[in-house]
Design goal:
- The complex is a heterodimer of chains A (288) and B (239).
- Chain A has 288 residues and is an all-alpha fold.
- Helices cover 78% and strands 0% of the residues of chain A.
- The radius of gyration of chain A is 24 Å and the shape is globular.
- In chain B, a hairpin with a 2-residue loop joins strand 1 and strand 2.
- In chain B, helix 3 packs across helix 4 and helix 3 runs parallel beside helix 5.
- With 239 residues, chain B is α/β, with parallel strands linked by helices.
- Chain B starts with a strand and ends with a helix.
- The chains are: A mainly alpha (288), B alpha/beta (239).
- Chains A and B meet through helix 9 and helix 10 of A and helix 2, strand 6 and helix 5 of B.
Chain lengths: 288, 239
């Protein structure tokens, strides 16, 4: 409207000039193209380099099958665990006042700042055969390192902050008033959580869970250290992809990589569909 | 219900919110806790509602010690400063919340809940809004829904934290009248917190003037106007 009725100098103070807008959009698109779209396209192109038949056949390979199963299993254990931990941590931090709160928040962020490889090594030191706990556990026939529990522990550690980090700002912004209101109306603590807290945080929780899931399936460093990379047993998808790539099994490596990428894209699509289907509800529950 | 506050004090860490204060609220009275921010009036209200526990002292409801009673057991209808309506529920669901939260044995059947919610919507003179969400209401409507939600649990007392604080002057005057009427029909002992001396003087039977965690004066509005007990009260009601 201002473009047609008034000279350009009357435009809104927050609006940029036309060349500036075009330049900014171009930079954004170029960045997105080079850093995100091109690598993704290359993965799928390489996977299909020798035809779809070869790609599908390589996925039927025993190691590839085992890697897919293991990765899905690890995510299926680690994500619910971290959803519960994340809710508990965010609840503790936002609904109560206590000494050492800032320290606890720093602790939650620790997995972001510590290299996953270091985390993996720490787990090996704690639970490896040569450690006190690890030695005892192996004697009981329940090894942690070079086995599923170790991979799960490493994945849980690395993905711990995602849910809590999504929830904390949302819960701080919402404050305690609605919960307090529910309590004065006679609701028990569990009922308050179920009927007031959870509906208010469910979108943030969903984003946190999706991010957590994507990272749990894609984690390489920490899992590489604790898993021992036993082919067909403890090798997750990212690890199997690396091993195949190192052995010049290009089609197999990229086919599996394409599946991993597709799993990630699937979560994104899921999020978008949910947002789209519940758009009216999202709008209605915005803070008034 | 008769409320007695006996030497209640409250500290938050190193800060003192309430020095020992005592106050008797006769059954059925409409009482204003009046004071500037930081005077301890909201803390006292929250202690009555069971949302905060005193560092020392006792609260008595009808002569029974209620100091350790949980927030749920107190059955205090509480109206929060920014109303704290449940954003994701309709007005109907908001008002029905307290009835649905009851243990199964004392929970009214669906038809009864329906009937009670409609009656409350009539009482607040908003019979048409049951299916709207809080975000679709005006400030004054939200305040009245919050009041209806608090009344739905058949409370033993009504506690309101700055009930008119977020409203413009005209709506505020209207709703003051509304609260007075609801108080007179229900006969509930009602305590509200305000920093607005006009509001306190116009609405309340009994005004409690507070400052810095202390009660400066307790009295009927006309008595406080005529004989302010301390220099603080004189200055505060002149403002």
């Amino acid at each position: 409207m201002s473009d047609t009725q008034a000279p350009a100098r009357w435009r809104a103070v927050t609006e940029e000039s036309r060349p500036a807008r075009i330049a900014l959009i171009a930079v954004a698109l170029a960045g997105l193209g080079v850093l995100v779209l091109a690598p993704l396209a290359v993965v799928f192109a390489e996977a299909l380099a020798k035809g779809a038949g070869a790609a599908i056949a390589s996925l039927g390979n025993r190691d590839a099958q085992s890697a897919i199963r293991l990765t899905l299993l690890v995510a299926a254990i680690a994500v619910p665990l971290n959803a519960v931990f994340g809710i508990a941590a965010a609840w503790t931090i936002t609904k109560f006042d206590f000494r050492g709160k800032a320290f606890l928040i720093t602790l939650i962020d620790l997995p972001f700042s510590v290299s996953p490889v270091v985390a993996g090594l720490a787990l090996v030191l704690l639970f490896g055969t040569n450690s006190l706990i690890g030695g005892w556990l192996v004697a009981q026939g329940f090894p942690i390192i070079f086995a599923l529990p170790g991979i799960v522990l490493a994945s849980v550690f690395v993905t711990f902050p995602f849910v809590a980090r999504e929830l904390i700002p949302v819960m701080i912004e919402q404050g305690r008033a609605e919960e307090e209101a529910a309590l004065t109306l006679g609701a028990s603590g569990w009922r308050v959580f179920r009927t007031v807290t959870l509906p208010n945080i469910k979108w943030a929780l969903l984003y946190g869970v999706l991010l957590c899931n994507a990272r749990a399936m894609g984690e390489f460093g920490a899992v590489a250290v604790v898993s021992g990379k036993i082919r067909g047993v403890t090798a997750t998808m990212p690890i199997t992809i690396e091993m195949m790539y190192n052995e010049y099994l290009s089609v197999a490596a990229f086919s599996l990589a394409a599946v991993l990428a597709a799993l990630g894209l699937l979560t994104l699509a899921l999020k978008t569909v949910l947002e789209w289907r519940h758009a009216d509800q999202l709008a209605a529950t915005r803070r008034y | 219900m008769h409320i007695e506050i006996d030497e209640i004090a409250k500290e938050f860490g190193a800060t003192t919110a309430l020095r020992p204060v005592s106050l008797a609220i006769p059954s059925g009275a409409l009482v204003a806790l009046l004071g500037p921010s930081g005077s301890g009036k909201t803390t006292l209200l929250r202690i009555l509602g069971g949302l905060e526990f005193p560092s020392s002292g006792r609260v008595l409801f009808d002569g029974q010690d209620a100091t350790g009673m949980t927030v749920q057991e107190r059955r205090a209808g509480f109206v929060f400063q920014s109303y704290a309506l449940f954003k994701h529920m309709t007005v109907f669901e908001n008002i029905a919340y307290g009835l649905r939260a009851r243990p199964r044995a004392s929970r009214p059947p669906a038809a009864e809940i329906q009937r009670r919610v409609s009656k409350l919507l009539d009482l607040i003179q908003l019979p048409q809004i049951a299916r709207r969400f809080p975000s679709q209401l005006s400030g004054g409507q939200r305040q009245r829904v919050a009041l209806a939600r608090a009344l739905a649990i058949e409370p033993r007392m009504l506690l309101l934290d700055e009930p008119f604080g977020a409203l413009d002057a005209r709506v505020r005057k209207e709703l003051r009248q509304g609260l007075r009427e609801i108080h007179d029909t229900t006969g509930l002992t009602t305590v509200f917190v305000t920093h607005d001396q006009d509001e306190a003087m116009e609405l309340a039977d009994l005004v409690v003037v507070m400052s810095m965690g202390r009660i400066e004066q307790i009295g009927r509005p006309q008595d406080i106007r005529a004989r302010p007990a301390t220099p603080f009260v004189r200055e505060f009601i002149a403002a």
